[in-house]
Amino acid sequence: MSELALEHEFVEGSPTVPALLLLHGTGGSPTDILSLGKELCPASPMLAPAGQVSERGAARWFRRHAEGVFDTEDVIFRAGQLAEFIVEARKRYGLNERRLVAVGFSNGANIAAAVVLLHPEVLTEAVLFAAMLPVPEAPRHDLSATRVFMANGRQDPMAPSAPAQELVTVLRERGADVTEHWHSGGHQITVDGLAAAKEWLSVNGHNGPHPANG
């Protein structure tokens, strides 16, 4: 069996709850983000890959030119790379028929949003903490089968309200079901945001076949 393209950790879990694709923020790691998955749904199978871009030694999912200024070409390339990893990991770990929900914070949330926008045949559900629009002029794919939960801070200097709201708008224009949770803080995951995400996970989606498999 060939090696998967991205280094990752995988944790077995219950077949009755969604599998989680956990995507770390800048400077994070698969081990770090597993703790978030355990807070959200401790019984879930968890797949946590590692970002392959290094920014002064800090792991990231894609390059940026400056704070909040993303390298769009690299975002598109890395989103395609992650989409391919998801397809192969589903096969490797027997997740093809499972509901799979991406969960990301900051840079991890942004790459998850990019995959949702660019590769809806691969990823249709995401929990995004501190996300913003990752690509300008995203293609107009039909996202009517897509569900997204977004939790953002109104005082977040790294994911300001305007580009965060842009992501909401772009998703909804393409038919996605978006649940917004806004808090008064900054670049963080709040207790209330975590609780709202857990509730969203419990009531949204289904455990049927993945769209890419018919």
From TrEMBL:
Coiled coil: none annotated. It comes from Saccharomonospora viridis (strain ATCC 15386 / DSM 43017 / JCM 3036 / CCUG 5913 / NBRC 12207 / NCIMB 9602 / P101). The keyword Hydrolase applies. This is Predicted esterase. Belongs to the AB hydrolase superfamily. AB hydrolase 2 family. InterPro entries: AB_hydrolase_fold (IPR029058), LYPA1-2/EST-like (IPR050565), PLipase/COase/thioEstase (IPR003140). Keywords: Hydrolase. Residues 15-202 form the Phospholipase/carboxylesterase/thioesterase domain. GO terms for molecular function: hydrolase activity. Pfam families: Abhydrolase_2.
